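Lay summary. Proteins are chains of building blocks that fold into shapes, and those shapes determine what they do. In this project we predict the shape from the chain. Here is one chain we studied, written as its sequence of building blocks.
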Amino acid sequence: MPIEVRREQVLDAALRLITEHGYAAATMEAIAREADLAKPRVYSAYPGRGPLLNALFERQEQRALATIAEAVPADFTGYESALDVLATAAENLMRAAAAEPAAWRLLVFPADEAPPEVRQHVHTSRTFAVDQLRVLLVWARTVHPGLAEVDGDLAAEMLAAAGERGLRLVLQDPDGYPPERFAAFVRSWADIFFR
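And here is the predicted shape, written in a compact code that computers can read:
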């Protein structure tokens, strides 16, 4: 098996252990069992638990950042209002979380026992999301002049906080909070806000 494939297998096993049993359960031995690999094979992929966890969070962070970048388009051509962009972004983000709940739980629900590196990855993802929202709000002012008086930084922070709460609801109760429900809510809320 190529080392790249083994590394992914090891990271997937670690992700399952952490999301099901917490960080303490993700020992090198437990990860080897979960991946159905001999312990030396796990060590050949990652020299220790620290580098393994760091690689896991870097992978999940990159996936989250890519999803956020896709959810909030960089180019607003074709959109008539910020409402459309915001509703589409909310639905896309919630669909991504619903499709890969274990991966998103890692970033949305950092446990108390999470290593400092984990918290740094969560912070980086959140900062990226807030920056994307700031760009959206700057563009929204060109389409909705009434937003000129709105504090863009604070609005971006509040929208990010609402998005984080939305992700938690989707992950905790996917049947009660499907992505379509969020899109409808964002449209109705944003319609009032932008009006």
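What the prediction tells us: The CA atoms of residues 87 and 185 lie 8 Å apart.
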